[in-house]
Amino acid sequence: MDWNAILAFARGPLFNAALLIFIGGMLFRLFRVVMLGWGKDYSTSRGSKATGVVQSYLKGLFVLPFWPWVKGTFQRNPIPYIAGGLFHLGLFVVIFLGTAHMLVWKDLLGFGWPTLPMPIVDWLAVAAIAGMLALLVNRLVHPVMKMLSGPSTYINWMLVFLPMITGYIMTHHLFFRYEVAYSLHMLSVDAMLIWIPFSRISHFMFYFFSRTMHGAELGKQALTP
Amino acid sequence: MDEAANKAIDLFVQKTGGQVASLLEACTRCGMCAEACHYYQATHVPEYTPIWKVEMLRRTYEQRFTWGGKLRLAMGLDKEITNESLAEWSNYDFQACSMCNMCSMVCPMGINISSMIGMVRSGITAAGLTPEGLAKKTATQLETGSPNGATEDDYAAWFERSSKEMGRELPIDVPDVDILLVLTNLEYASFPGNLASIAKILDAAGISWTLSMEARDAFNMGAIIGNGKIMRQLADKIYNAAVRLRVKRVLVSACGHGFTTLRDKLPNARGEALPFEVIHIAELMGDVVSDGRVKLQQGFLSDNGHTYTFHDSCKIQRMGGIMDEPRLVLKQMAGDSFHEMLPNREQAICCGGGGGVRAIPEAFDTRMAAFELKVKQVENADADVVVTTCSNCRLQFMEGFKHYGLDKQVSGLAELMAQAIIE
């Protein structure tokens, strides 16, 4: 097989097509939800919705396990909490602060930014991969998680896991020739990008809806979200 | 397809706007809401997971609004909504949910799950599958004015008795006053002294007020079963009385859902802001004490050998926002013998009896199991008197303490405060 040709296709036309499907699909979903209409709220406010929204995001970011409002949740859900937290942290660092990915962004956006040293990014990538495995095991054995999961949930997991594991293999020159590992990484990234608009991986967009509404609802009553 | 199920689906479709759609789209099935629910914590029944209680709404949304959902349904990967599934979910959404909204406090995405459970309840009710206990109480309230069958004559007799006790004629249907006081049948039946206590607080604060026969019960079975038409019909009685009497404020006594229904749901059901303010007695007590209109004997409860704790009710405190006012009053009276239960305030655990659960006989075991969490909290707080501002929580606490054979008391804040007023 001509892996160089596959790589050229996967990081060229296929990547561009996948990006278009990803952006177009997400925009479509955004508009479809927004166009469903939003009820007007006629009830009176005791506090500030804006304050609530700001607090809601701060609380969403700073979820240290020893803070009083996080403690109970943390103690009762240690696996999703730690594994989910590590996964998201690792994912964001690798995608935005890893040098290789920053260069992709630079290519797409026209500007770059400083990145973190390789060992830090690398260890966070390991943490993210370990987190994903822990989340999968938890999903397969916990009665609540089994009940809540369907085929698409596992497809989501697989299509996020593949780019991460192939990226790691490629970076560390494991098992495959470089162009083979690179091709597999790009093919899995393309598959993930195409799948996202059809899946719940899209929660990164709707996060801003639910978190904002939650903050506004509690802020309206002068409460802390 | 089942005809009854179709009614539920039509209602779900009609109620699905951007808000519901974006909340459903935000869910990642992380399952953390399970451990937020006191019914799940107490029983570990997987189906009591809050987001699972929304499953009927999720199915409708995906199968009716999204291509993926339509495809999955056609391929047999997603289940249809049937009469049987709605009947099954009636057990989860009515018997094992007090609409306390703790799940949305824990959700990493901040999804307001209880608002969607409310919609599922509406669908189940539209399909005619409301639990019998609640359906009966709804019919009784429509017929007599109160879910327990208390009639206008019963209330009149209660007002009469209270007048005699107080040595003062109670104001009934007096126009152009500041406050219209709306009571509940729970107080009529179980805590009749609450009326005289609230009257004493209002009089001491120099507030002009009235009762009204038309607006005698804040309880709203329509809101509990999720029937918008009945909710509006019952709430409008209070609205009409308030407008007719030209009051500035409607004061809801110790009722949680009655308060939030009037304050937050009625304006949106009517599509206009209300021409009066809706306040809760817990709020008013704090306000008149903090601005000095009512003076309390400091330490009135601090040397009687009892220790006090305050229970945050979901509708009044977590959803209503009335957290500091009742604490201010209780702290003035109890001083150091007031102990907080933890977690409290926004993160408080529900008593397990709200949202109509207390009125469903089949839910007894579940709600008592959930109450055990509350027992532990009270014991950890080293308190022997629990103070609430909600009559429904109060009844659940009384029943629960009796069920577990505990020698603990439950008090209403208004009754305690009325005794501490310096004339």
> What is the N-to-C succession of helices and strands of chain A?
HHHHHHHHHHH
Strand content of chain B: 5-15%
Give the low-pLDDT segments of chain A.
Answer: none
Distance between the termini of chain A: 56 Å
Name the beta content range of chain A: under 5%
Tally of strands of chain B: 7
Strand order of the largest sheet of chain B: 2-1-3-4
**How do the helices and strands follow one another from N- to C-terminus of chain B?**
HHHHHHHHHHEHHEHHEHEHEHHHEHEH
Mean pLDDT of chain B, rounded to whole units? 94
Number of helices of chain A: 11
Number-wise, the strands of chain A total: 0
- The amount of helix of chain B comes to 40-55%
Biggest sheet of chain A: strands, sense, closure?
Answer: none
Approximately how much helix is present in the residues of chain A? over 70%
- Helix/strand-derived category of chain B reads mainly alpha
What is the radius of gyration of chain B? 22 Å
What structural category characterises the helix and strand content of chain A? mainly alpha
Q: What is the CA-based Rg of chain A, rounded?
A: 20 Å
Oligomer: heterodimer
Fold topology:
The complex is a heterodimer of chains A (225) and B (423).
Chain A: H1 3-11, H2 13-34, H3 49-61, H4 68-76, H5 78-97, H6 99-109, H7 118-141, H8 143-148, H9 151-171, H10 178-195, H11 203-220
Chain B: H1 3-15, H2 18-26, H3 38-43, H4 55-65, H5 67-74, H6 83-95, H7 102-106, H8 113-126, H9 132-144, H10 152-166, E1 179-182, H11 185-189, H12 193-204, E2 209-210, H13 221-225, H14 228-244, E3 249-252, H15 256-270, E4 277-280, H16 281-290, E5 308-310, H17 314-318, H18 324-334, H19 364-380, E6 385-388, H20 391-403, E7 409-412, H21 413-420
Parallel strand pairs in B: 1-2, 1-3, 3-4, 5-6, 6-7
Helix pairs in contact in B: 1-8, 4-5, 6-8, 12-21, 14-15, 16-18, 19-20
Model description:
The complex is a heterodimer of chains A (225) and B (423). With 225 residues, chain A is mostly helical. Chain A contains 11 helices and no strands. Chain A has helices at 3-11, 13-34, 49-61, 68-76, 78-97, 99-109, 118-141, 143-148, 151-171, 178-195, 203-220. In chain A, helix 1 (3-11) runs parallel beside helix 2 (13-34) and helix 3 packs across helix 11. The model of chain A has no long low-confidence stretch (mean pLDDT 90). With 423 residues, chain B is mostly helical. A 4-stranded parallel beta sheet of chain B has the order 2-1-3-4. A 3-stranded parallel beta sheet of chain B has the order 5-6-7, sandwiched between helices. In chain B, helix 15 links the parallel strand 3 and strand 4 (277-280). In chain B, helix 16 (281-290) crosses helix 18. The longest helix of chain B has 17 residues, at 228-244. Chain B is globular. Chain B starts with a helix and ends with a helix. At the A-B interface, helix 2, helix 4, helix 5, helix 8 and helix 9 of A face helix 2, helix 7 and helix 15 of B.
